[in-house]
Write a structure and sequence with these properties.
The chain is α/β, with parallel strands linked by helices and 831 residues long. The chain folds into five domains: 117 residues, CBS-domain (Roll), CATH 3.10.580.10; 127 residues, CBS-domain, CATH 3.10.580.10; 119 residues, PAS domain (Beta-Lactamase, 2-Layer Sandwich), CATH 3.30.450.20; 162 residues, 2-Layer Sandwich (Alpha-Beta Plaits), CATH 3.30.70.270; 249 residues, Alpha-Beta Barrel (TIM Barrel), CATH 3.20.20.450. 43% of the residues lie in helices and 22% in strands. InterPro entries: Biofilm_reg_signaling, CBS_dom, CBS_dom_sf, EAL_dom, EAL_sf, GGDEF_dom, Nucleotide_cyclase, PAC.
Length: 831
């Protein structure tokens, strides 16, 4: 189950989330949520670890309100903190975690802390997929079910979970639905400093689950796919039986695996022990064992067989006695096989291994055979005792499991594991002569759109079709594999000319495009291909794969539906982007993000009527970064939702603070991305934020870009209508830069339009821009919308906008974007 040579450092997390002992519990919980980890290390002023506070420690709290949240984490942490050497084997760490009943530990190397290891890290290091696929979910082997009604209070849930040591609790609704409250939810409530009245408000739903009897592999895959740590086990009637955690799955696997292993070894040892002690007990052993046994004399003539021998081979006792075991020979073993067998018997007196034999009816079968020589006091061999079992079905199952372990279940193509083996073999064959071969990394364009719009069934159907296309065009002796998702790769083992590779890449692109519309939907299907060549682009498997991947991303950047050969400067750009994405994941937790404010003013009087909240990133090495450099990375890395919610919360908190100071900031405008509106309950998030900071909904403006607002198929009108019902002021940002349907614009529940800066910057000397700006102002006024011109930098621009009837504006003519403190000073100066 575990890799015996694997050390604890190899599975640990190198980034240690830490805080001081006087940090509040609410703040510690907030950092853990933002970082997506289950523990935080408490340090002293010199950075030395004092203890650790985990999700499970939240169970020790009596409440989750703001008063409890203000307690210092130093009073709730677990001590002493367990520190493990970096070279400790994983197997020893497992035993240590169980003996001490811990879930987290620090990892130390050369006197310095180099990472954190959790029970989850140890669990994920287990290679149990094959065993999981043939084991079933059994509800009564998991932890006892904790269940409360939706009208119960979080305090009741906390007490029940603490009493049972549970990591999750099920919540039942009157309509028969279920929700779930986990340790992560308790952290969230503690971080928010609120305790909802009922579990209906505090829990997450719906509760995902599997039927009892589903495979453990299916259960674990569902947990990993949805990034959750618990799921439900339902019976055939849909009744909730149990909550199943990832730890429960592994415990089931280990328990059954060890039971089967011990049982098999005990049966084999018992049979051999009895047969060696005394041949007088042979009759009893023969009658009871399921394994075939035959006894020969010193010359190999069969003297005795048991009933299991006859059942397995088809030969009766009368047919076998007096003959030699050669009657079972299949001819499948090589000539020297039996020479080595007899040599082992003469030298050590024992032999065991697998043999393919033939039954009486002619059918072949595989047996596991153990032979023991029985000698007298002088060392002369009196008998040979052979014990064997029919393992044909087991061998077939092993072959099937081996296939599943090395092939993609959906397409039947080799998976990453098998592909890397074949790639390494190709490298070893090519090394002596430096022969060329190529890797073609194929990635479908906009495949996520297919899954999101048509569903995963259509996506799977498309992947099977693409696999067939790649196999159709792949030359003989090449390997086509599916690495993951919509990523495929082709190993072309013998390449004479680069033009040969380019021609094949174009064939593949054309073949993929031909699949457009074949799924029953009018979809254009295309792919991007990156190509790396051996040995020019790398002499190791990792280098060739990384460079082919870089080339593929270059193909996407150049418009998709094309192929690119690897060039040396691709890696530098890829590494820079990867480094930025990694840093951005930690930026929230490390408080590197900032919100700046640019005033909105009345053009006629220059009175501040509000401001736009603008995101900035103060990178510890690169300094202050504008959004244009990191927002696309946040979009690709699915970070826009948490970052957007943080900006909204920060802006509302600052606005509430300025109101309390007697300042008049007007209305705060926050930009909202399409991802925030499409996924999750954004209107609920806005409502909670306004309540938390005591803001009136009319004081908040949400700016939506024109392209997002015009996306009719995504249900954008309904999403905006929910926000409008809250009383939030909605406006269209960057108006005029995209394609707008005026009839659709009339349906949108918006109150304002922002004229894009690209029209404002040249309107004083460009007649077209002036005409367009005048038209936009006319459209907005006819629709009863308030207009704001952005990018106003000159008095002549302000005068033009006033003449045309535009009342509001923002730009460097009035103020550049300001940090919070400077904007606060500007408000105070204009009182």
């Amino acid at each position: 189950m575990y890799c015996l040579k694997q050390c604890i450092k190899e599975i640990s997390t190198p980034d240690i989330l830490a805080c001081s002992a006087d940090t509040s519990l609410a703040e510690a919980a907030r950092r853990m949520l933002l970082a997506g980890c289950g523990s935080i290390v408490v340090q002293d002023e010199a950075g030395r670890p004092l203890g650790i506070w985990t999700e499970a420690d939240a169970l020790a709290l009596d409440r989750l309100d703001g008063v409890v949240g203000m307690r210092p984490v130093g009073g709730a942490m677990s001590t002493p903190l367990v520190v493990l050497p970096h070279d400790l084997p994983v197997s020893e760490a497992v035993a240590l975690f169980r003996q001490r009943g811990i879930r987290h530990a620090l990892v130390e190397q050369a006197g310095k802390m180099c990472g954190v290891v959790s029970l989850t890290d140890i669990v994920l290091s287990q290679g149990s997929e094959s065993f999981l696929s043939v084991r079933r979910v059994v509800a009564d082997r998991a932890a006892p079910l904790c269940l409360l009604g939706a009208q119960g209070s979080p305090e009741e849930a906390l007490a029940l979970m603490r009493r049972h040591g549970a990591t999750a609790l099920a919540v039942s609704f009157d309509n028969g639905d279920y929700g779930i409250l986990t340790l992560r939810d308790l952290l969230r409530l503690l971080a928010e400093g609120r305790a909802p009245a009922t579990l209906a408000e505090a829990c997450s739903w719906p509760l995902l689950g599997v039927r009892e009897g589903s495979s453990l592999l299916q259960a674990r895959q569902l947990i990993l796919q949805h990034k959750i740590r618990h799921l439900a086990v339902y019976d055939v009637d849909g009744t909730l039986l149990q909550l199943l955690g990832f730890r429960d799955i592994i415990q089931m696997v280990e328990q059954e695996f060890l039971q089967e292993l011990h049982s098999a070894l005990r049966e084999r040892d018992d049979a051999l022990l009895h047969s060696r002690r005394s041949l007088l007990l042979a009759d009893k052993v023969f009658e009871s064992t399921l394994e075939g046994i035959l006894i020969t004399d010193g010359n190999g003539v069969i003297q005795m067989v048991n009933p299991a021998f006859s059942r397995i081979t088809g030969y009766s006792s009368q047919e076998a006695l007096g003959r030699t075991p050669a009657l079972l020979k299949s001819g499948r073993q090589p000539a020297d096989f039996y020479q080595k067998l007899w040599q082992s018997l003469k030298e050590s007196g024992v032999w065991q291994g697998e043999v393919v034999n033939r039954r009486k009816g002619g059918l072949l079968y595989t047996e596991h055979l153990s032979i023991t020589a029985i000698r007298d006091a002088d060392g002369e061999c009196l008998h040979y005792v052979a014990v064997f079992s029919d393992i044909t079905q087991r061998k077939q199952s092993e072959e099937r499991l081996h296939f599943l372990a090395n092939h993609d279940a959906l397409t039947g193509l080799p998976n990453r594991t098998l592909f890397l083996e074949r790639l390494q073999e190709a490298i070893e064959r090519a090394q002596p002569t430096r022969a060329q071969f190529a890797l073609l990394f194929v990635d479908l364009d906009r495949f996520k759109l297919v899954n999101d719009t048509l569903g995963h069934h259509a996506g799977d159907e498309l992947l099977v079709r693409i696999a067939s296309v790649l196999l159709q065009y792949a030359p003989p002796h090449s390997t086509v594999a599916r690495l993951s998702g919509d990523e495929f790769i082709l190993l072309l083992p013998a390449v004479e000319r680069v033009t040969q590779v380019a021609a094949l890449a174009q064939q593949l692109l054309d073949g993929v495009t031909e699949q457009s519309g074949l799924t029953g939907h009018e979809l254009f299907i295309s792919a991007s291909i990156g190509i790396s060549m051996y040995p020019e682009d790398g002499v190791s498997a990792d280098a060739l794969l990384v460079n082919a991947d870089s080339a593929m991303y270059q193909a996407k950047e150049r418009g998709k539906n094309n192929f690119q050969f690897y060039t040396s400067d691709m890696n530098a750009r890829a590494m820079e982007r990867l480094k930025l994405e990694y840093s951005l994941h930690r930026a929230l937790a490390q408080e590197e993000l900032e919100v700046w404010y640019q005033p909105k003013v009345e053009l006629a009087t220059q009175r501040v009527v509000g401001a736009e909240a603008l995101l900035r990133w103060r990178h510890p090495e690169l300094g202050l970064m504008a959004p244009a450099k990191f927002i696309p990375i946040a979009e690709d890395g699915s970070l826009m939702v948490p970052i957007g919610e943080w900006v909204l919360d920060t802006a509302c908190r600052d606005w509430a603070r300025w109101h309390a100071m007697g300042l008049e900031p007007g209305r705060i405008a926050v930009n909202v991305s399409g991802r925030q509106l499409k996924y999750g309950s954004f209107a609920d998030t806005v409502a909670r934020t306004l309540r938390r900071h005591g803001l009136n909904s009319g004081e908040l403006e949400l700016e939506i870009t024109e392209s997002v607002a015009m996306d009719e198929d995504s249900g954008m009108v309904e999403a905006l209508q929910r926000l409008r019902e809250l009383g939030v002021y909605l406006s269209i940002d960057d108006f005029g830069t995209g394609y707008s349907s005026l009839s659709y614009l009339k349906r949108l529940p918006v109150k304002g339009l922002k004229i894009d800066r690209s029209f404002i910057m040249d309107l004083h000397h460009d007649g077209d821009d002036a005409a367009i700006t005048s038209a936009i102002i006319s459209i907005g006024r006819s629709l009863g919308l308030e207009l704001v011109a952005e990018g106003v930098e000159l008095e002549s621009q302000r005068d033009f906008l006033l003449r045309q009837g535009c009342r509001l504006g923002q730009g460097y003519l009035f103020s550049k974007p300001l940090p919070r403190a400077e904007f606060e000073a500007l408000l105070a100066a204009r009182m």
